[in-house]
C-alpha cells in the first residue's frame, strides 16, 4: 500500500519470521534428540515457508474482514473473531501435513525417515508460532494503525496539516494518505468482490455444476489409469542435469554393457590379514574362480 500507515511490510516480514522460528525450533529439537541430519532435510525450510506464508495470508485476511465487520470492537473481540474464522482452516491444513509426514517415518529408508521427522515437527512448530507469535504481531500492528503511526519509524504521522503545496506522493509517504485523513479500514478487496459477485454465481449454475462433475469424472478416470501404468524403478538419467557429464556415461553404459547383466560384487564380512601374502593369494584365487 502507498499509505505509510496502512503499509504492512513489517506484518508480512513477521509472518516469514514465524516460519523461520519454526524451522529453528524443530531442527534444534531434532538435533537435541539425536535424529540424524541428512542432506534432504535442507529442503524442509522451503516447505515450511510455503505453509507458513499461506497461514499468514489466511490470518491477515480474517483480521481484515473482522475489522470491517466490527470497526468499534475491542482488540480482544477482533482477535477472537479472527481466530474463529482462520484457526479452523490453519488447523486442518497443518494436521493433514503433519499426519502425512509422520506416516512417512514408517519407511525403511533412514534418510526419508529423518526428513519426515524434521519436516513434520517443523509443521507443528509453525502452527504454534502462527497461533501465538503472529497473532500478537497482528494486535501490535492494529494498535500502530489506530495510533496513526508510521509503518517504519512508529512515529505519529502528521494529519491535518496544510498539504496544499505538497504532492500526493509526499502526503502518502509522510502524512498517511493523499487526503491527509486518519487511516480508516479499507473496503472489500477486489478479489473478494470478484468471487462473490461473479465467480460464485457462475460456478453454481446448474449446467456448470454438471460440467464440473463430468470433468472431475474424466480426471478421476485418468488418474486411475495412470496408477495402473506406474512401474517400479528409476532412470538414473533423471537424477542429473541435462548437460551433465553423467548423461553420456549412462548412455554408453547402456549401449556397450547392458547385455552383460547386473554387476556382481563379493564382500568379505570378517577381518582379513591383508599383510599376509598367502591370504592375498587366496583372495585372488577366489576372485579368479568366480570370474
TrEMBL record:
Ranges annotated as spanning the membrane: 9-38, 44-63, 83-109, 115-140
Domain of life of the source: Eukaryota
Topology relative to the membrane: Multi-pass membrane protein
Principal cellular location given in the protein's record: membrane
Keyword terms, alphabetized: Glycoprotein, Membrane, Transmembrane, Transmembrane helix
Family under the similarity heading: Belongs to the patched family.
Protein name: PTHD3 protein
Lineage: Eukaryota, Metazoa, Chordata, Craniata, Vertebrata
Chain's gene name: Ptchd3
Amino acid at each position: 500500500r502507498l499509505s505509510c500507515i496502512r503499509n504492512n511490510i513489517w506484518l508480512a516480514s513477521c509472518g516469514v519470521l514465524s516460519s523461520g522460528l519454526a524451522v529453528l525450533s524443530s531442527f534444534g529439537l531434532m538435533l537435541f534428540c539425536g535424529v540424524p541430519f541428512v542432506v534432504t532435510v535442507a529442503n524442509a525450510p522451503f516447505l515450511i515457508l510455503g505453509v507458513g506464508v499461506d497461514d499468514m495470508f489466511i490470518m491477515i485476511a480474517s483480521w481484515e474482514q473482522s475489522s470491517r465487520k466490527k470497526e468499534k470492537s475491542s482488540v480482544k473481540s477482533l482477535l477472537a473473531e479472527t481466530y474463529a474464522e482462520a484457526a479452523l482452516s490453519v488447523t486442518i491444513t497443518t494436521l493433514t501435513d503433519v499426519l502425512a509426514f509422520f506416516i512417512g517415518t514408517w519407511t525403511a529408508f533412514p534418510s526419508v525417515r529423518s526428513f519426515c521427522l524434521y519436516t513434520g515437527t517443523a509443521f507443528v512448530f509453525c502452527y504454534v508460532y502462527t497461533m501465538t507469535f503472529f497473532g500478537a504481531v497482528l494486535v501490535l500492528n492494529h494498535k500502530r494503525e489506530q495510533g496513526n503511526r508510521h509503518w517504519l519509524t512508529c512515529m505519529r504521522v502528521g494529519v491535518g496539516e496544510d498539504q496544499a503545496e505538497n504532492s500526493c506522493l509526499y502526503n502518502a509517504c509522510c502524512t498517511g494518505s493523499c487526503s491527509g485523513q486518519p487511516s480508516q479500514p479499507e473496503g472489500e478487496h477486489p478479489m473478494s468482490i470478484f468471487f462473490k459477485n461473479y465467480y460464485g454465481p457462475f460456478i453454481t449454475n446448474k449446467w456448470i455444476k454438471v460440467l464440473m462433475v463430468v470433468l472431475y469424472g474424466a480426471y478421476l478416470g485418468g488418474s486411475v489409469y495412470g496408477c495402473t501404468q506406474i512401474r517400479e524403478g528409476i532412470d538414473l538419467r533423471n537424477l542429473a542435469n541435462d548437460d551433465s557429464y553423467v548423461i553420456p556415461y549412462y548412455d554408453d553404459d547402456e549401449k556397450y554393457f547392458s547385455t552383460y547383466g547386473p554387476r556382481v560384487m563379493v564382500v568379505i564380512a570378517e577381518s582379513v590379514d591383508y599383510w599376509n601374502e598367502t591370504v592375498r593369494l587366496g583372495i585372488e584365487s577366489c576372485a579368479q574362480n568366480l570370474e
